[in-house]
Design brief:
single chain, mainly alpha, globular
């Protein structure tokens, strides 16, 4: 699972729109969209913020492995 796929999954599970996430991070919705399509990666400080926001480690977020499925 790619970074973008994980980001999209976590954002959707949190019930957040791309606009809402972008506002929390101080970036554009287009930036979030590009991250989710794996066209670009966020800055390292944004990755830390995203990991904290969604309650995952930065390693789990950035490594090419799957999250456990939520019940």
């Amino acid at each position: 699972m790619s970074f973008g796929q994980k980001l999209q999954m976590l954002r959707q599970q949190a019930g957040m729109s791309q606009d809402a996430l972008a506002e929390r991070l101080g970036v554009s919705r287009q930036a979030v969209s590009r991250w989710e399509r794996d066209e670009t990666m966020p800055d390292p400080d944004k990755i830390v913020t995203l990991a904290d926001l969604f309650g995952v480690t930065t390693d789990k977020f950035t490594k090419q492995e799957n999250f456990p499925k939520r019940q």
